[in-house]
Design goal:
Blueprint (H helix, E strand, L loop, with lengths): L3 E3 L14 H16 L5 E5 L4 H12 L3 E3 L2 E6 L2 E10 L4 E3 L1 H7 L3 H23 L11 E5 L7 H12 L4 E5 L2 E3 H7 L5 E3 L2 E3 L18 H10 L12
Parallel strand pairs: 1-10, 2-3, 2-7, 7-8, 8-10, 9-11
Antiparallel strand pairs: 4-5, 5-6
Length: 238
């Protein structure tokens, strides 16, 4: 059964509709509010790095607990901004087989990239979550927050991870996404909140934002620290 998709009709196919991630997060939080504000057995999982400002604002606006899920795209050799799949901290691999074939990537090239990403995932888990155990999501409703979907494979990996760990309901909450990625994710989640859905052939998450840049590690850590996350850990700023 396909997910219930909620968007802002006036933002369909528009570009530069958000000032920045904080602005986008407020729009998303207002959309989610009537359904999930102070909801019981509900939590927000944000995807670092760009999803952290989104997740923080959504969790704050809805008075919900926040945690992070560490997943990483598998970058195309020579083009680190684009990916041909995603890898979870548990080691599960999700490949865009059509893109792998189109790029004519050899099995060795694919495996080499996966090996590199595994090391990055361990480092990011230590930096952002201090290696703490994954939160208990059994019988929980989980709002998966990011700053946008591109191909959707990173979110797909997150969803499959959370589902396998026992989540009762999964809701994808992103400010912007192409319709093709919405369609890819829709069969495996219950709801999708995405104010800015776009249908053009070429899509870039950045095109939804007037002010867009990649967040640095220290910026993400500062954001988390300012919000008091995690309450029981001291973030390593070295």
């Amino acid at each position: 059964m396909a997910a219930k998709i909620r968007e802002v009709s006036g933002l369909r196919d528009k570009k530069f509709v958000f000032k920045d991630r904080d602005d986008a997060a407020k729009v998303l939080s207002e959309m989610l509010g009537p359904y999930y504000e102070k909801a019981k057995e509900t939590m927000v999982l944000a995807i670092p790095s760009g999803g952290v400002p989104i997740g923080l604002e959504v969790a704050k606006g809805l008075s919900l607990p926040l945690d992070l899920i560490i997943v990483r795209k598998i970058p195309i050799p020579g083009n680190p901004e684009a990916g041909f799949g995603a890898l979870t901290l548990d080691g599960d691999v999700f490949l865009n087989d059509e893109l792998v074939a189109f790029l004519q990537l050899s099995p060795k090239e694919v495996e080499d990239q996966i090996t590199k990403v595994k090391a990055v995932l361990k480092e990011r888990n230590h930096i952002f979550r201090q290696g703490t155990p994954f939160p208990d999501v059994i019988n929980q409703t989980v709002l998966m927050a990011d700053d946008g979907l591109a191909s959707g494979y990173t979110m797909l990996a997150c969803v499959e991870t959370v589902r396998r760990k026992g989540a009762r309901k999964i809701v994808v909450a992103v400010p912007t996404a192409p319709k093709s990625s919405i369609s890819r994710i829709s069969p495996i989640v219950e709801e999708i909140f995405c104010p800015n859905i776009r249908t053009e052939r070429y899509f870039a998450v950045a095109d939804a934002y007037a002010d867009w840049y990649d967040l640095t590690r220290d910026e993400v850590l500062n954001r988390l620290q300012e919000a008091g996350f995690p309450e029981t850990m001291e973030l390593n700023m070295d």
